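In this supplementary section we document a worked example of the pipeline. Step one takes a protein sequence of length 159 as its only input; no multiple sequence alignment statistics are reported here. Step two produces a three-dimensional model, which step three serialises into structure tokens for compact storage. The input and output of this example are shown verbatim.
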Amino acid sequence: MEVNLSDNWQKKSAEKQKQYKTFLQRADKNKVLKQLPNLHEEAFEKIDCLTCAACCKNYSPRFKTPDIKRISKHLKMKESVFIDTYLNLDKDGDYVVKSTPCPFLGKDNYCSIYKHRPSDCQRFPYTNEDVLLKRPQITLKNATFCPAVFYVMEKLTEK
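The serialised model returned by step three reads:
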């Protein structure tokens, strides 16, 4: 089956949240984990993040201590100045960007700190790792705005 990534994929994803949730709860974890690398590759053969960037436009990654050290060094800023300039603590005690879209996202959807970006950004959208199963709430949310997560979930649930 071909997954349709036309303009209404978000509506379809919203309609299938219950089905995705049930799948994630009942999935044979080993079987799914074996499928993820290929499905991840397949998704990114069809999807160009630079045409979307919804993740960078609407959400923030967590900036962990190693991320803050690496990025502030790259920007030649003191860590405290970097934090004061760009970050806030969220309700979970994680550092996140103060504003959306991400201040490092350019108008062309390129990231100005791409080589130094937070590990959350490097790993997103988690379609090739166990986070997809271990954190179902994140997966369900991501499926509503990331076409790659939608694609992988459609492929996993089509059988």
